[in-house]
Write a structure and sequence with these properties.
The chain has 10 helices and no strands. It is an all-alpha fold and about 200 residues long. α2 crosses α4 and α9 runs antiparallel to α10. The protein is globular.
């Protein structure tokens, strides 16, 4: 997904002279950032982290490089740094999800009741496996799977080479297949590979 017509980069530039223009950027991107953070840390932390993300973005907006791939990777990169500060909460939330198998933030993966039951059973296993990933692998995987960023956008967001994104994503997938076990294996694979450009 690219920046919306109307130019996010132009909004940032305009906000340097007219700070109130930054509100349009918040309106466009805060819901997606909030949902991503809520899935990582829970709803309680999502409000704070989303606010911190946009406050930081506002403070450093003069340093935004308009030649970048877009504003979304820049914002997700800031959010990833904020999430890193709350990492212990994230691991705790993933362990809770692993125990209960219920993700209160995510939309159901399917429309049928039978498939939802299978998905919830697999969610606990997946959450436990996610909690055991390194922070770097988890950032890459969840930016890909939950924020729907492409490889180049993830690289921009985290300030790492695209090759590192590919290797971390590959390693995370391998670990999830191994750690999550056979019962949810096919569901996990379908979830992770959904929209996979590789």
């Amino acid at each position: 997904m690219t920046d919306l017509a109307g130019g996010d980069a132009e909004l940032i530039a305009a906000s340097l002279e007219e700070p109130e223009r930054f509100a349009a950027l918040f309106d466009r991107h805060a819901p997606a950032i909030h949902q991503y953070v809520a899935r990582r840390l829970g709803r309680d932390a999502a409000d704070d982290v989303t606010a911190e993300t946009f406050l930081t973005a506002f403070r450093i907006r003069a340093r935004f490089d308009p030649t970048r791939a877009g504003v979304r990777p820049w914002l997700y990169g800031i959010a990833a740094k904020q999430i890193g500060r709350h990492r212990r909460q994230e691991v705790k939330a993933l362990k809770l999800l692993a125990r209960t198998g219920h993700d209160p933030v995510a939309d159901s993966w399917t429309d049928s009741a039978d498939d939802r039951l299978v998905a919830e059973a697999a969610a606990g296993s997946l959450a436990g496996a996610l909690a055991r990933l390194s922070a770097g692998d988890r950032h890459v995987l969840l930016l890909f799977a939950w924020a729907d960023l492409g490889y180049q956008e993830i690289a921009e967001a985290l300030g790492i080479p695209v090759g590192t994104v590919r290797s971390r994503l590959n390693r995370a997938r391998r670990k999830l297949r191994t750690q999550a076990g056979a019962p949810g294996g096919s569901l996990i694979e379908a979830r992770i590979h959904e929209g996979d450009p590789a």
